[in-house]
From TrEMBL, chain A:
The lineage of its organism: Bacteria, Pseudomonadati, Pseudomonadota, Alphaproteobacteria, Hyphomicrobiales. InterPro entries: ABC_transp_permease (IPR001851). It is a multi-pass membrane protein. This is ABC transporter permease. GO terms for molecular function: transmembrane transporter activity. The chain crosses the membrane at residues 6-26, 33-53, 59-82, 89-111, 131-157, 188-207, 213-232, 239-259, 265-283. The keyword Protein biosynthesis does not apply. It comes from the Bacteria. It comes from Hansschlegelia quercus. Its main location: membrane.
From TrEMBL, chain B:
It comes from Hansschlegelia quercus. The keyword Endoplasmic reticulum does not apply. It is a multi-pass membrane protein. Keywords: Cell membrane, Membrane, Transmembrane, Transmembrane helix. One of its GO terms (cellular component) is plasma membrane. It is found in: Cell membrane. It comes from the Bacteria. InterPro entries: ABC_transp_permease. The keyword Transmembrane applies. GO terms for molecular function: transmembrane transporter activity. This is ABC transporter permease. The chain crosses the membrane at residues 62-80, 114-137, 146-168, 197-215, 244-262, 268-288, 295-311, 323-343.
Length: 306, 370
């Protein structure tokens, strides 16, 4: 029973950074911008959150710093792709390379430092319920924040006017512009929000998952988050499902020894990446459905001619 | 303030100017960066950009680092021209090193003049096989080649680690996760005496020449260009997208695989888990900086090699963090992508338009169609 509980708690810890990063990228993509720099924004969030927490002694300050660093990276991406109309694929790659480099540069002085265990929520009576208590009432605060964020984004996209405008911008930027919506402004907000979410995901890595700083500690999670958006067919709730599925695969690898599986560590570490490929293939197989689900203007450069 | 005004037609001279603008801006930003780190910026710039050019040995090192970058970037550029994004060259590089290196180890300790060509072939085939996965999944299942090729980088790195911990481990190596040192006939001959520069650079030059002919002189290169710039026109003209995706991946995968083998059989001399050092990613920057053109890539590759070697020197002499080089390279690509706006747009002083715009309703017939 304890093992099962530990595994289930671990799934949430493994899934949450993916939830943050994917939901941010989902908003970015729904506005019509493809930001491949999630990995770079995440890793910057990770180092900023770690450094700020270490300096201030406050997790709140750290989390805000992580989100701010991600948002700054997102805004930088916006500056290049929206104002200077650069190629989104190439700029996203540049953002990742730059983020990995800059975070390593900043992080050098923090090698070896570590933070105390991130506190879990403890509600009297409720958390003490056997099994269900720790699962539902005993996660850390960021897990709840990530789930609330997904629900909030789902509500925003489908139930609010602003969400409708955001989707319209992503589906047909020329039409949105013709009606008078500020396409570029909307997209700036979307990429900055996406960056902040990726930064939160990174913050979760360096504050909660492994409370220390390791160079390149995102280890491809930003890319997996990108795949999750495709997996979710650009629908918020499915992001949650996808992220927890991936969390499960990651945790499987950690607990495989306890479960008595005798597989090389390297093969187990390959699992999340291989699973991503399999998922992509299964989801993308139907080209027509992909076209219907993906925002029509995804990755296209917008320039207002009048 | 300034605003961007579209040019009537793209200013192609700008395509050649923007890499230099970007380099200049990177140096300016580098001054700021080093000052922020509390280091002497002038000395850092001297160490990075000038010092490596002043000694025979470091000039030779330029060839060592430049060869894989040029080889990989030349292949990637062909795909990038067609809008086919192979960003997993790092993985193909790793697999090429594994397959090519395994050939050497399989014949150990025998060898002869035939061994190196066989290894190069195996390396290229390994890279191609690894690149075939994203190509197949893209053409057959419509899966994003960007994500698939990138995921395979992690898988390839883990595979290398798995192999050098197991089947390819040196039997006399005290359980270190490394392969044997390759036999002499499996090592690339040196190009310049007393240095590490090897014939890999010559192969890179050949690849540049071949790619030039391929892109500029063959109909297929033209098809690639059209596919990238006007995909619909390409489809109407009957160019096969499938064929273009496949050949882009085969060329870039093969060259990256060969580069990986050259790294294993050249400066490293064995298979180690730390073999992939990021050439596959830096080559993306090289490809763009070189304007996706083989000759441009030749220069861009040498420049990028310069920042590697200069970065190492600066690291040792000024105790700068090793990541400084990648920050530099990232900034360079940023500035380049940003400056490229000047190809299609020009800067103008923002102000009132010279002619007052008429309300559209009055002259609908004269309004240009969107």
């Amino acid at each position: 029973m304890d093992l099962v509980l530990n595994i289930l708690l671990g799934v949430a810890v493994a899934a949450t950074p993916l939830v943050f990063a994917s939901i941010g990228e989902l908003i970015t993509e729904r506005s019509g911008v493809l930001n491949l720099g999630v990995e770079g924004m995440m890793v910057m969030g990770a180092i900023a959150a770690f450094a700020a927490t270490l300096a201030s002694g406050s997790y709140v300050v750290g989390i805000v710093a992580g989100a701010a660093a991600g948002a700054a990276m997102g805004a930088l991406f916006g500056l290049l792709t929206l104002s200077l109309m650069s190629n989104q694929v190439a700029t996203g790659l540049a953002l990742t390379l730059f983020g990995l480099g800059l975070s390593a540069l900043i992080g050098q002085q923090f090698a070896g430092a570590s933070l105390p265990q991130f506190p879990r929520v403890n509600i009297p009576v409720l958390t003490a319920i056997p099994f269900i208590g720790p699962l539902i009432f005993g996660q850390d605060a960021l897990v709840y924040l990530s789930i609330a964020l997904v629900l909030g984004v789902g509500w925003f996209l489908t139930k609010t006017r602003a969400g409708l405008i955001l989707r319209a911008t992503g589906e047909n930027h020329d039409a949105a512009h013709a009606i008078g919506y500020p396409v570029i402004g909307i997209r700036y907000l979307a990429v900055t929000f996406g960056g902040a979410c990726a930064g939160l995901g990174g913050a979760y890595l360096s504050l909660v998952q492994t409370p220390l700083w390791v160079e390149r500690m995102t280890a491809g999670r930003g890319w997996i988050a990108l795949a999750l958006v495709v997996f979710a067919s650009w629908k918020p709730l499915r992001v949650l499902g996808g992220a927890y599925l991936f969390g499960g695969i990651t945790i499987l690898q950690l607990h495989s020894q306890a479960l008595g599986l005798k597989i090389d560590a390297q093969i187990l570490s390959m699992l999340p990446y291989l699973a991503t490929i399999v998922v992509l293939v299964v989801i993308s197989r139907d080209a027509t459905r992909m076209k219907l689900n993906a925002p029509s203007c995804l990755g296209k450069v917008f320039y207002a001619t009048s | 303030m300034f605003k961007l005004v579209p040019r009537k037609e793209p200013l192609n001279a700008m395509l050649y100017a923007t890499p230099f603008i970007a380099l200049l801006l990177t140096i300016v930003a580098g001054f700021a960066l080093f000052s922020a780190l509390g280091k002497d910026p002038a000395q850092a710039m001297y160490l990075i950009f000038i010092k490596p050019l002043t000694s025979y040995n470091s000039l030779a090192e330029l060839l060592v680092k430049g060869a894989p970058l040029i080889l990989i970037a030349t292949g990637l550029a062909i795909g990038f021209r067609a809008g086919v994004w192979n960003i997993g060259a790092e993985g193909q590089f790793t697999i090429g090193a594994i397959t090519g290196g395994s050939v050497a180890l399989a014949f150990y300790p025998d060898g002869g003049f035939w061994l190196l060509p066989l290894m190069a072939l195996a390396g290229a085939l390994g890279g191609m096989a690894w690149a075939a996965i994203p190509a197949l999944l893209r053409t057959r299942f419509n899966a994003s080649e960007i994500l698939v090729s990138l995921m395979l980088v992690y898988v390839a790195t883990l595979l290398l680690s798995l192999l050098v911990h197991g089947p390819l481990r040196d039997p006399e190596g005290f359980n270190f996760p490394e392969s044997r040192l390759f036999q002499d006939s499996a090592l690339l001959p040196n190009l310049l005496d007393g240095t590490r520069a090897n014939v890999g650079f010559l192969v890179a030059l050949v690849a540049v020449g071949a790619a030039y002919i391929y892109i500029e002189r063959l109909i297929f290169g033209f098809q690639v260009k059209v596919m990238g710039q006007a995909p619909r026109a390409a489809r109407y003209a009957g160019f096969s997208e499938r064929r273009i995706v496949w050949s882009s991946f085969m060329i870039s995968g093969g060259l990256a695989g060969m580069a990986g083998l050259f790294e294993a059989a050249g400066p490293v001399g064995q298979l180690v888990p730390s073999l992939p050092v990021g050439y596959g990613f830096t080559a993306i920057i090289v490809a763009f900086l070189g304007r996706l053109h083989p000759v441009g890539i030749l220069f861009a590759g040498m420049l990028m090699a310069l920042t590697y070697i200069g970065g190492e020197t600066a690291q040792i002499e000024m105790s700068l963090p090793s990541a400084t080089t990648s920050v530099f390279q990232g900034m360079l690509l940023f500035f380049l992508l940003g400056a490229d706006v000047l190809v299609n747009f020009r800067l103008a002083r923002a102000g009132k338009p010279l002619v007052a715009t008429k309300p559209a309703a009055q002259s609908p017939a004269l309004e240009p169609a969107e």
